Amino acid sequence: MRNAVLPLPRGYLSDPQYEQKQAAFRARVKDAGMTVQRVESPDWLEMLLYQALKELPRQTEQRIESGLQRERQPVDKPAVRQAKFVNPPPMTAPTWFQDRHVETGLIGEFLRDGGLRLLTVVGRGGVGKTAMVCRLLKALEAGQLPDDGGELPVDGIVYLSPAGIHPVSFPNLFTDLTLSRSNIRLGA
Asked: Are residues 14 and 44 in the same domain?
């Protein structure tokens, strides 16, 4: 692996107006565990990008095939609904829903931490936020995290939505939580 410094003047490596933002971005990428590599020439960068793009279809095929194999595996025992629910889930994630393993793992780590209480999943519309969360919560019904994330028993799941026949409001939330308290142990 070649890892050299590109011999260009500083003005070509960063924009003085956005230098702090660029440095912060580079730090976040490095801290996220992503591969960071300095290149010795634009040609070397082009070759590395070309190799990565050539490899992408093979990696995608492997992930799809791996997911299909997991779907085809015989289930030893049917999933038993262990958790109690308040309100119906907004959707069922399609069986072909792929990826989001990293994000699902991060949410799993968050849920395991008893000191954390509120999680917000944000992003552009249509990128799969609801499908990812519904897939995770469906697995939690049986006390498991998806993608071999291990066991995580939960006592209850409350689905909240600003729309529908049972929208989020203080009276609805209060009623749901207090009427269900006899059936659901809230908290850790």
From this structure: yes
Does residue 187 fall inside a structural domain? no
Whether 1 maps to a domain, the answer reads: no
* 143-178 confidence digits (pLDDT tens): 888 888 889 888 777 777 776 666 778 887 777 666
Q: What is the pLDDT of residue 188?
A: 36
Residue 112 · residue 153 · CB < 8 Å: no
Q: Which residues contact 159 (CB under 8 A, 6 or more apart)?
A: 85, 86, 87, 88, 89, 90, 137
pLDDT recorded at residue 134:
84
Sign of CA dihedral 102, 103, 104, 108: positive
Instruction: Check residue 177 and give its pLDDT.
Output: 67
**Residue 77 and residue 74: Cα distance in Å, rounded?**
9
Cβ proximity of 1 and 48 under 8 Å: no
